[in-house]
């Protein structure tokens, strides 16, 4: 049972219902010492999407920032995480990984989504700090079948939280993981022996389980903060939305003293259907609270049609807004791509076609974007 104080007091105490069905629940966010409008509160909030607890969902707001009567932001700590001039890199390496602890594993897609995607919160105790846009490596338990006697290879996962984590205290990180399942093409049945080792380990984990992590790694997807009024165009397929969740929480949810975002963040997210949308509740709230600073366009390939009557993919959305996107790029906007590597050929073809229509040479334009450090790609 949840107990909710009046919003006018801005003092909220929430508890997740015991024994709720985690397989259908959106990610859980547990927070201590959050202050809004001079008041403090300590919720343990379980967000419920597409689940049987629909009544509770309607009574509760869909994310931390939603508890506000105004657009107050969440206090974060330790602020010293802002002091570093350079991002942390490879603090822990594969031969000496850090042993972290699973906090929670939550299924974050609905019943009609193809496949399962989980939001996984990991406690690193503040010992493996990172910046938004970086990745953690995970070493699943067991022996590498290709190298008997050796551990599994490291699998990289884009981090889906800000440096302060979902608990806003700098001690956790979050990963967005799709369970990799192999189906035999002849029988149509699942073959567990060929399932993704690391994704299944993570999605099967329970609170308290240990996990070996490395990193953080990566610089290409770091959020440029030298201009707080810049435009950021973010293009994702599926779990490629992970780094953008971190960006957007930093821009719109957290009270970061040294970063006051006043630009435009424009997210394009491509998934199969409405049940496959990831963190949609958070993004919808930013759209409501910051309509002049956030735009959000979805490409649902199994539910929407493009202008030619075919399936709607993210490149179709890019083409739809191509004139505006190109003008923003000409004005210095950053553009990011994250997701399966198969997304890039279609996107590149679309951008080249648009450039040709505009009388521009795409190869030259792309070269200039890269030279200006406006072009950021992380695909897998």
TrEMBL record:
It holds the Pfam family NAD_binding_1. It is an enzyme of class 1 (oxidoreductase). Its cofactor is FAD. InterPro entries: FAD-bd_FR_type, Flavoprot_Pyr_Nucl_cyt_Rdtase, FNR, FNR_nucleotide-bd, FNR_plant_Cyanobacteria, OxRdtase_FAD/NAD-bd, Riboflavin_synthase-like_b-brl. Residues 95-223 form the FAD-binding FR-type domain. Its EC number is 1.18.1.2. It catalyses: 2 reduced [2Fe-2S]-[ferredoxin] + NADP(+) + H(+) = 2 oxidized [2Fe-2S]-[ferredoxin] + NADPH. Keywords: Electron transport, FAD, Flavoprotein, NADP, Oxidoreductase, Transport. It is found in: Plastid, Chloroplast. Transmembrane segments: none annotated. Belongs to the ferredoxin--NADP reductase type 1 family. This is Ferredoxin--NADP reductase, chloroplastic. The lineage of its organism: Eukaryota, Viridiplantae, Streptophyta, Embryophyta, Tracheophyta.
